[in-house]
């Protein structure tokens, strides 16, 4: 029994390292999200850090429209980044999880 | 042994419900982030959904400056939302985790 526990702890430690390495790698995974008419472009990392926002001059004429464009495009970008982030981290964490039915519920 | 496993699975199911309820509640937790001069205001939920972006008219005169303001303020808003999100979900998940030393590493 004690040996099992030690084995499990070792595996968790190893997985913890992998989770950390994955988080570091996700800093260098970039996603681009554009408004349907390409007037607004957002680049974001899979760790949800915005790298660039490119606004077409024409959008500066109508502030409320620009604000709506930003909210829509940014939310899509954050959502996509979160999907990649969670999928990658769940895959790594799953490897290290003890095999208890229902445990993967924590990785959704 | 079997009884333990059933007990653990029951606890995990219960915690899964709590995680779900917490995620729902976080939709209604809003954070406001402002640029230091208050010319840009962003409201975001603790599930990282942007609810509003308010741009001062003066920022529309210089597009590059506006883009920089947006990147800085939005990244701070997303970061703060992620801190609240992860703290709340980790607290709930921890309750349901089997007591294996090192397990909490998955909740960082």
From TrEMBL, chains A, B:
Source domain of life: Bacteria
Keywords of this entry: Cytoplasm, DNA-binding
The UniProt record lists the keyword Cytoplasm: yes
Major location (coarse): cytoplasm
Location in or out of the cell: Cytoplasm, Nucleoid
Alphabetical list of InterPro entries matching this protein: YbaB-like_sf, YbaB/EbfC
Family (UniProt): Belongs to the YbaB/EbfC family.
Biological function: Binds to DNA and alters its conformation. May be involved in regulation of gene expression, nucleoid organization and DNA protection.
Name assigned to this protein: Nucleoid-associated protein ABXZ32_07930
Species of the source: Sediminicola luteus
């Amino acid at each position: 029994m004690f040996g099992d526990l030690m084995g499990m702890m070792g595996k968790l430690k190893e997985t913890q390292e992998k989770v950390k390495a994955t988080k570091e790698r996700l800093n260098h995974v970039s996603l681009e999200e554009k408004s349907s008419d390409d007037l607004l472009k957002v680049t974001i990392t899979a760790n949800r850090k915005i790298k660039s926002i490119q606004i077409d001059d024409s959008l500066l004429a109508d502030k409320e429209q620009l604000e709506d464009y930003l909210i829509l495009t940014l939310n899509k970008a954050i959502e996509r980044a979160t999907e990649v982030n969670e999928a990658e981290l769940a895959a790594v964490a799953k490897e290290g999880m003890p095999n208890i039915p229902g445990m993967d519920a924590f990785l959704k």
